[in-house]
């Protein structure tokens, strides 16, 4: 089967800094793939290049076989790639439901039936119905993260990129998030997630790719990757 996302030889220079050094990576339809690596290894840059925030210095990104390399973010979003940010993004002065409505207005026109036909249904899914009328700016941090997930889902992605979705969440909130993300493939949404929390990644991902200094050093079943001496080496004294 053709991968939903196929990244080949992707590189990105920021002046003299090599953030990505020729990364090959595929995301298979229906999986939850984890991308890990030490601070500064290029994970966020990888997402930023895939979503069009940064233009790559070299390489290609194919989404469902279509070359989307270097397209503008709005054009990439319309192909069906959604993403959440490290910082939850919402209009603070608008209501929770209004935020989801607005995000949905920018949804791609070509998607099939959404698993969540209304903004309210999406709020039900992420567990924020009770807060629908609140201003986003007054939400507690955990709820704001869930709103960030709802906003990304409102754009009706078929591939969702999650950048540190559990950062700052407590254990209960993290479990709730894991429960939601695990359901996404069943709703036709493939997931690629970055996080430092290896326990979270073990709960979510059957496959992990590891970046180090902008290069992919491992890619395979989660348990095998976490036992790989090359991976243990880059995390020496670190999170593992
Ligand atoms: N906009 C930018 N301008 C200049 N350098 C950048 C920019 N974005 C990232 N970098 C550099 O590129 C390298 C990779 O950074 P990146 O944020 O992709 O790593 P990361 O793996 O996501 O790190 P972290 O886990 O800390 O979020 C780092 O050396 C970083 O300083």
Automatic annotation (TrEMBL):
Residues 5-238 form the ABC transporter domain. Keywords: ATP-binding, Nucleotide-binding, Transport. The keyword Iron-sulfur does not apply. Coiled coil: none annotated. GO terms for cellular component: plasma membrane. CDD domains: ABC_Mj1267_LivG_branched. GO terms for molecular function: ATP binding; ATP hydrolysis activity. InterPro entries: AAA+_ATPase (IPR003593), ABC_AA/LPS_Transport (IPR051120), ABC_transporter-like_ATP-bd (IPR003439), BCA_ABC_TP_C (IPR032823), P-loop_NTPase (IPR027417). Transmembrane segments: none annotated. This is ABC transporter ATP-binding protein. The lineage of its organism: Bacteria, Pseudomonadati, Pseudomonadota, Alphaproteobacteria, Hyphomicrobiales.
